[in-house]
Design brief:
Layout: E1 2-5, H1 13-20, E2 25-28, E3 46-49, H2 57-65, E4 70-73, H3 83-88, E5 92-94, H4 101-116, H5 119-127, E6 145-149, H6 153-164, E7 168-172, H7 178-182, E8 186-187, H8 190-196, E9 199-202, H9 216-221, E10 227-230, H10 239-247, E11 253-256, H11 278-283, E12 289-291, H12 300-319, E13 326-328
Parallel strand pairs: 1-2, 1-3, 3-4, 4-5, 6-7, 6-9, 7-8, 9-10, 10-11, 11-12
Antiparallel strand pairs: 5-13
Helix pairs in contact: 1-12, 4-6
Protein name: Hydroxyacid dehydrogenase
Family: Belongs to the D-isomer specific 2-hydroxyacid dehydrogenase family.
GO molecular function, one term: D-lactate dehydrogenase (NAD+) activity
C-alpha cells in the first residue's frame, strides 16, 4: 500500500521515507491538504497530513469519495479536524498524542529571550556594521515572575527552564501539576497571573472554550512591560486586540510562533507576493515583536518521534488495532 503524505517539509521527507520503508511505500507532497488538493488523494486508502491541513467536512467528503479511509495527522493538535464529519463518513482519524515537550518549551524560552535582549535588532544592526547599544537594553529574568498558562508536559518543561533561571513561578490550569508544585509554582486565578507576571507563556490546546483566551481584557490586565510568548496555537490570542495594545506602546516584547490565520501562509514562501492579511502585516512591523513560522516543534528529536508515531498509527489501522492516538475509530 502507498501512503500519501501532504505538507511534507524538505527536512522531514527523509525521516518519513526511512520510517515507512520497512512497511509501506510513501509518496511525499509539499502541497498542503485543502479542498483544491484533496482530489490528489484519490485511490489512496491512507493519507498523512500536517498541522495546517484543512480537514473540515467538504475536504473529508472529497477524501471519502476518493477511497480514503484513514487519516494520520502528524501533530498533537486537531482543532483543524471535523471529527463528527469524519465519523459520519467512516474515516479513521489518528494524531500524535505526544512528542518531545522540550522542543516547544525550549523554543518558547528562546522567543522570550530574543525579544527581551533585542537579539534580532542587534543582529540586523551588526550586519550593517552598526555596533551601537542604543535601544538594546534588556532585563534579567532572575528574580522576576513567570506566568505559565497550561502546565501539561510542555508547560512543565517551560516551568523547569524558568525555575532554572531563578524566576518566581505562577501557574494556571484546570488541574495542578505536582511536578510544578515541587518547583515552587503557585497556582492562581488567570487575572492574577496576568497582572503579576513579567513573562507570560501559553501552553494550552485550542478549543472553543480557549479561543481568544488572551483577549483585549486579558491583554489590558498584563503589565505594560511584560513579555508575552505563544508557541501553542494562534487562536489563543486575539491578534487584532494585541495589535491595538502594541500601538499604545505596551509590552517589552511579544514572541509568536503561531498566528490565528496562519493557514495558507505559514510553511510557504510568500516573499514575492503581496500579503493580504493586514493584521499580520501590521504585527510584524513592531520592533518589539518577533514572529516565527510555527517551528517550535521542529527539532530532529521531536519530528522523529512524530514520524515514528505516525507510522505506528498506520500499522495499527492496517492491523485493526486501536491506540490512545485514535480520535475517530474504524466504523
Amino acid at each position: 500500500m502507498e501512503i500519501l503524505a501532504f505538507g511534507v517539509q524538505a527536512d522531514e521527507r527523509p525521516l518519513i521515507e526511512r520510517a515507512f520503508a520497512p512497511h509501506h511505500g510513501v509518496r511525499c507532497l509539499d502541497v498542503f491538504l485543502t479542498e483544491d488538493t484533496a482530489p490528489i488523494a484519490t485511490g489512496h486508502e491512507v493519507i498523512s497530513t500536517s498541522v495546517n491541513a484543512d480537514l473540515h467536512e467538504p475536504v473529508l467528503r472529497i477524501l471519502a469519495a476518493g477511497g480514503t479511509r484513514m487519516i494520520a495527522q502528524r501533530s498533537t493538535g486537531y482543532n483543524n479536524v471535523d471529527l463528527d464529519a469524519a465519523a459520519r463518513l467512516g474515516l479513521t482519524v489518528a494524531r500524535v498524542s505526544s512528542y518531545s515537550p522540550y522542543s516547544v518549551a525550549e523554543f518558547a524560552w528562546t522567543l522570550a529571550m530574543a525579544v527581551n535582549r533585542r537579539v534580532v535588532r542587534a543582529a540586523t544592526r551588526t550586519r550593517d556594521f552598526d555596533f551601537r547599544l542604543d535601544g538594546l537594553m534588556g532585563r534579567d529574568m532572575h528574580g522576576r515572575t513567570a506566568g505559565v498558562l497550561g502546565t501539561g508536559k510542555i508547560g512543565e518543561a517551560f516551568t523547569r527552564i524558568a525555575h532554572g533561571h531563578g524566576m518566581r513561578l505562577l501557574g494556571w490550569d484546570v488541574a495542578e501539576n505536582p511536578a510544578c508544585l515541587r518547583l515552587g509554582m503557585a497556582y492562581v486565578p488567570k487575572d492574577q497571573l496576568l497582572a503579576e507576571s513579567d513573562l507570560v507563556s501559553l501552553h494550552i490546546p485550542l478549543m472553543p472554550e480557549t479561543q481568544h483566551l488572551i483577549d483585549a481584557a486579558a491583554l489590558k490586565a498584563m503589565k505594560d512591560d511584560a513579555i508575552l510568548v505563544n508557541s501553542s496555537r494562534g487562536g489563543l490570542v486575539d491578534t487584532a486586540a494585541l495589535v491595538a495594545e502594541l500601538r499604545e506602546g505596551r509590552f517589552t516584547g511579544v514572541g509568536l510562533d503561531v498566528y490565528e490565520s496562519e493557514a495558507g501562509l505559514f510553511f510557504l514562501d510568500k516573499s514575492l507576493e503581496a500579503i493580504e492579511d493586514d493584521t499580520l502585516a501590521r504585527l510584524v512591523t513592531f520592533p518589539n515583536v518577533l514572529v516565527t513560522s510555527h517551528q517550535a516543534y521542529y527539532t530532529e528529536d521531536a519530528v522523529g518521534q512524530i514520524v515514528d508515531a505516525t507510522v505506528r498509527n498506520v500499522l495499527d489501522y492496517t492491523a485493526g488495532r486501536r491506540s490512545e492516538n485514535v480520535l475517530v475509530p474504524c466504523s
